[in-house]
Design a protein that fits this description.
The protein has 438 residues and is of the alpha+beta class. Helices cover 24% and strands 35% of the residues. The strands form 6 sheets. A 6-stranded mixed sheet has the order 15-14-11-12-13-16. Strands 3-2-1-9-10 form a 5-stranded mixed sheet. A 4-stranded antiparallel sheet has the order 18-17-20-21, with no helix packed on it. Strand 9, helix 5 and strand 10 form a beta-alpha-beta unit.
């Protein structure tokens, strides 16, 4: 994958006049936000004149016909008994089991790709996909399996892989927060996401003593705290009060004593009038926002940051769970002097982090990698032995080194003998190893 400069070059004259897309992909609802040029992201409504932003993550095949619909139209056709439903598209893709629809088997990853294709078609009134500079797909947990699925989607849709990126909901929220006014992002920030899978609390805090400034996120899940139809409760007022009290206790346990500047309440679960004491507590000296499209807008900001780093984010680095936590490099000789060569940089998503380079060996059949955590402490050296490397005269062995992250904490290294032109042909030998970053 080319570096950022290579992407900018491939795109031609910058990306200021192009579009950026952010997609929030979940099993229940998804959203698409976009930005044209340098404008703030916006989320198109499903219905003109109304703010209906969530696209049901669902497909439906019309009975007896090769007609597929998606989103709200799919929901309506299924409700009218006109189509076969296929929901839980993300879960099905992760499961991998074939989906049978009217006696025909479908690959669940292909069905997810079809859904995303239909979501992207919503951009046609605003800009053609050819003018989209970058797309970010944001998911709750971008683990190895999820990344493999998203890469399949990109390949199936024939999207240019150098223009498509993936990131977690946590990172999308970070990008959104960093693009708010200075008074909002000046201190800690809390994001509360209440959906059918439960309540997730994400608290972002900054360490301004480091350079770059490090932003970390603490996450806590409350799987049993679920959205409810309180109007249908046996005693709705008592149930509202109990839920309000429980939410207050959760908030108090995490934010009391913190220098918290702002809070964001996401999801339909926060609708209604059940929050009284908890909302009063949350608003005390803080700004509180409510909405549903923070992740898709944050993904859109993230798409722009890939190509055009902003002043708001320059000098900051986000260390989420899927980030590389240490720099990896090695000592090399440059123009007769020993120097440090960086290979992989901390702070990047592990699934976006790899490098390939060629080196000339001096004499040793051994490489040594230096792993430096962001805090600069507990630096360690990891040796790699090239057993069986053909013996040649000094400085006549070239090698190709490829290093890539396999997870947020494990790195894989592959070294190949390239020989030295016609004088010393390559032995085609390869060496492979992996090690933990921390």
């Amino acid at each position: 994958m080319p570096g950022i400069e290579g992407i900018k070059s491939a795109l031609g004259k910058g990306a200021r006049d192009r579009a950026f897309i952010g997609i929030d992909l979940t099993d229940e609802f998804s959203q698409l936000s976009f930005s044209l040029g340098e404008e703030d992201p916006r989320t198109p409504s499903l219905v003109q004149g109304k703010e209906r932003l969530c696209i049901p993550t669902m497909l439906a095949k019309k009975y007896g016909e090769s007609v597929w619909t998606y989103g709200e139209e799919a929901v309506e056709m299924v409700a009218a008994n006109e189509a076969f439903p296929v929901d839980r598209l993300v879960e099905r893709a992760l499961d991998g089991a074939t989906v049978e629809v009217e006696a025909v088997d479908y690959n669940p990853r292909d069905l997810l790709a079809l859904y995303i294709r239909r979501c992207l078609s919503r951009m046609s009134p605003y800009t053609p996909l050819e003018k989209v500079a970058a797309i970010v797909i944001s998911v709750e947990d971008p683990n190895e399996e999820m990344i493999a699925i998203l890469n399949h989607v990109v390949k199936t849709l024939r999207l240019k892989p150098e223009r498509v990126f993936f990131q977690s909901h946590a990172e999308s929220a970070y990008h959104y927060i960093m693009h708010q006014s200075a008074d909002v992002r000046a201190a800690d920030t809390c994001v509360c996401d209440l959906r059918s899978t439960g309540l997730k609390l994400m608290i972002y805090s900054q360490n301004i003593q480091t350079k770059p400034h490090v932003v970390i996120m603490q996450e806590r899940n409350y799987d049993n705290f679920l959205p409810e139809d309180l109007a249908g409760a046996k005693d709705p007022e008592l149930r509202k009060a109990a839920k309000d009290r429980e939410f207050y206790q959760i908030l108090y346990s995490h934010i009391e004593g913190r220098r918290l500047q702002a809070a964001f309440l996401l999801g339909d679960g926060f609708e209604g009038d059940w929050m009284k004491e908890s909302l009063k507590y949350l608003c005390k000296g803080r700004r509180v926002f409510r909405g549903n499209n923070l992740f898709s807008k944050g993904a859109c900001y993230g798409a722009r940051e890939k190509l055009e780093p902003s002043e708001e984010e320059r000098g900051n680095i986000f260390l989420g769970q899927d980030k590389v936590k240490a720099n990896i490099g090695m000592r090399v000789m440059r123009e007769g002097r020993e120097a440090y060569m960086a290979i992989l940089d901390a702070g990047k998503n592990w699934y976006d982090t790899f490098r390939e380079c060629e080196l000339m060996l001096c004499e040793e059949e051994r490489l040594e990698f230096i792993v430096t955590p962001l805090n600069g402490k507990d630096v360690k050296k990891v040796p790699m032995y090239l057993k069986g490397l053909p013996r040649r005269t000094r400085r006549t062995t070239r090698i190709r080194l490829r290093m890539e992250m396999m997870s947020e904490n494990r790195v894989k290294v592959v070294v190949r003998d390239l020989g030295f032109g016609e004088i010393f042909p390559s032995s085609n030998s390869e060496w492979e190893m992996d090690f933990k970053v921390s």
